[in-house]
Each structure stands twice: as C-alpha cells, then as structure tokens.
Amino acid sequence: MNTPIRAVILDLGNVLAFHDNALLFRRLGARAGLDAEEAGRRLSGAGWTAANRGLLGPEGIRRDVCGALGVDLPMEEFNALWNCHFTIHEAVLPRVEGLEGRVKRILLSNTNVLHAAWLKPRLPVLERFDHLVLSCEVGHVKPEPAIYEEALRHAGCEPHQAAFFDDLPEYVAAANTLGMRGHLFTTANAFDGQLRALGLE
User: Fold this and answer.
1) Rounded distance, CA 181 to CA 58, Å?
2) Which of 45, 67, 82 is the last residue of a domain?
3) Non-local CB neighbours of 120 within 8 Å, separated by 6+ positions
4) What element of type H or E holds 8?
5) How many CB atoms lie within 10 A of CB 160?
6) Longest pairwise C-alpha distance within the chain
7) Total count of domains within the chain
8) Residue 1: pLDDT band by 50, 70, 90 thresholds?
9) Which has the closest alpha carbon to 106: 140, 157, 52, 144?
10) Over the stretch 71-96, which tens digit does the pLDDT of each residue have?
11) Are 114 and 64 a contacting pair, CB within 8 Å?
12) Is residue 155 within a helix (H) or strand (E), and if so which, with residue range?
C-alpha cells in the first residue's frame, strides 16, 4: 500500500497561472522596435537566471531588461509589460482549495520579485499555503536539489510523502531523483486524476 501523501508541492507558472512568453516577447519587442524572436533572444540567458536567483531587485530587473532591448521604460510601464503574459488558471483553483486541511500545500517556483509581487494578490489562495518557496527569495532554482530540499523542509515530511506537480519534465525528473512523487502537470482535469491516484480525490 502506498504511503499516504502529507504534502502537495505545486509549481506556479503554467499550473496556478499560465505564462505566455511568446506574448511577453511580442509586447516588449514591439515597445523596443524589435520582433518577438529578437526580443526573446536578447532576454534569454544570464539576466533572467540572475533575476530568478534574487540577484536583481525590481530596479535591477528593469535596467537589465531595458538594457538588453535598447529601450528605457519608466518602472510603471515596464512592470505592466513585464507581467502582461500571465493569466490565472481559474479551473485548477478549486482543486487546490479542496486540499486545504488535508495536506500541507507548498509553492515551489522559479520566479523573480516583480512576477511574484504581481501574482500574489491575484492568487489569494497562496495566503493559505503552508509556505511559498520562491527562487528569488532562497537563491536556488529548479532543478537544483537545494530548492526541493527547502520545500521538503517546510513540508515537514519525507520525500516519498510529498507529491510534486510541475509543467516541465526536467523539473519533475529532478523531484523524482530526490525520492518525491513527481507528476507532470498538464490540465486541471488530468490533475483531478492524479490526485485521485494519490488518494486525494
């Protein structure tokens, strides 16, 4: 018989909120007079990772992104553009709400301070999570073992007692390597089936 699940550890992007990076690159690129492909090329790499590790604060992110794109946007305009690609995944929220009081709920996300600040008030369910493990606050990023271990520490359980859901296979594989029960998140309906299989229907 499977060990009961004591914690559900959830990714943020494309689980609780969709993020359309193609839209982000189109909008930022248009403002800078660049096509989306060029904007995406300029924004990939070290700066993005530095922001996710918490090495860049709000103004640092603005300067880094604007510098890469060759444009200087005031913070208010920049922040609106920087968060334009998010849509709350309304269908999954009742499933996540239904776990309250049954298991610990931990958020585990690679994100930066501006994205986190924009999403938190739009996802009030996060206020009732047991803990939020955000890469920009802990200095580690998935798939590094340290960030999963941080989530497990706050979950207060052994790896095999934690179910982890993420939309990226490499992050799920990293969780499985540590002994967690990793699942690839695809849709709210599929999530229902995964929870049933874990005894959390």
Assistant:
1) 35
2) 82
3) 126
4) strand 7-10
5) 14
6) 59
7) 2
8) very low
9) 157
10) 999 999 999 999 999 999 999 999 99
11) no
12) helix 145-155
